[in-house]
Structure formats: structure tokens, C-alpha cells
TrEMBL record:
PANTHER family: ADENOSINE DEAMINASE. The lineage of its organism: Eukaryota, Metazoa, Chordata, Craniata, Vertebrata. GO terms for molecular function: adenosine deaminase activity; metal ion binding. This is adenosine deaminase. Belongs to the metallo-dependent hydrolases superfamily. Adenosine and AMP deaminases family. Its EC number is 3.5.4.4. Pfam families: A_deaminase. It comes from Nothobranchius pienaari. SUPFAM superfamilies: Metallo-dependent hydrolases. It comes from the Eukaryota. InterPro entries: A_deaminase_dom, Ado/ade_deaminase, Metal_Hydrolase.
Length: 72
């Protein structure tokens, strides 16, 4: 389960509010990664919606990075 009770609380928890180190940035993934890891449909939905959002924003090229070992 997620620590956050609402979508806005989750958003607040995963956004950096001040400059941080790489470690500080990566720690944000701990907030939700355990929920999607191993869930093929969730991963597909995240990827699809990311591309869909970028298309709506007019982006014609984007590179996405995934960490397969975190998603397995």
C-alpha cells in the first residue's frame, strides 16, 4: 500500500521541493515503485499514458529511461 491517502498527497511526496542529490532524487521512487513493480499492466499503462501526455503537449521526440531490475 501507498503511504499517501490521496493523489495530491502522493504528488507532494514524490516531487522534489528543493535541490537534492542524486540519492535524494532516487529516494522518491521508493514512495510508489513497490506498487507497480511486477505488475505488467500497470507498467504498460504508465508507459502508454506518458507517451499520450507528451503527444498532447506537442512533444515529437522524447527518451524515456526505465530500470528493468526495479520493475521486475
Amino acid at each position: 500500500p501507498l503511504k499517501a491517502k490521496t493523489a495530491s498527497e502522493l504528488k507532494h511526496n514524490i516531487i522534489l521541493h528543493e535541490p537534492a542529490t542524486l540519492t535524494g532524487f532516487l529516494e522518491k521512487f521508493n514512495e510508489y515503485m513497490h506498487v507497480v513493480a511486477g505488475d505488467r499492466e500497470a507498467i504498460k499503462r504508465i508507459a502508454y499514458e506518458f507517451v499520450e501526455d507528451k503527444a498532447k503537449e506537442g512533444v515529437i521526440y522524447v527518451e524515456v529511461r526505465y530500470s528493468p531490475h526495479l520493475l521486475a
